[in-house]
Amino acid sequence: MSPVKELFLQTQALFEYVSQSFPKEADERDRFIATIDEQLQYREQHLAKIDAMNLSELEKKLGEELVKLNKRLNKRLEEVRAEIRANITEVQKKKENARKYESPYEGTQTDGIFFDSRGV
């Protein structure tokens, strides 16, 4: 099988996998992200094997389809990345709220403090 076809099939499989809904459970999320990372690394290895100067016409057409698929894949990966960021932010807020609940008087409070500007 030609490297272009292998890359196309790998990209297509990755796109189908990434098109699934983002898992809600932490363990499933970690596996989902790890699988994406593995597939991206595998895909990168196939990309390195391609010699752009020695492609047949069929491989060039497949390459054009690959570019289109890659654009859709990048868009979906950005959506997944945004979901991951939102999830991390949510976890950080939960940790901060739990910390504040456990020790409500920790930290500085600026409510009710008046500083005299005259220096008296």
Task: Explain how this protein is built.
Helices cover 72% and strands 0% of the residues. By secondary structure, the protein is mainly α. May act as an export chaperone for the filament capping protein FliD. This is Flagellar protein FliT.
Main features:
120 residues; single chain; mainly alpha
Outline the secondary-structure elements:
Elements: H1 3-18, H2 26-49, H3 57-102
Helix pairs in contact: 1-2, 1-3
Protein name: Flagellar protein FliT
Coiled coil: 63-101
Family: Belongs to the bacillales FliT family.
Return the string of H and E elements. HHH
Shape: elongated
The first-to-last residue Cα distance is 85 Å
Q: Low-confidence stretches at least 5 residues in length (pLDDT < 50)?
A: none
| Biggest sheet descriptor | none
| Structural class computed from helices and strand pairing | mainly alpha
Total separate domains: 1
Please tell me how large the radius of gyration is.
25 Å
- Relative helix content: over 70%
Number of strands: 0
Number of H- or I-type helical stretches: 3
Overall pLDDT level: 86
Strand percentage lies at under 5%
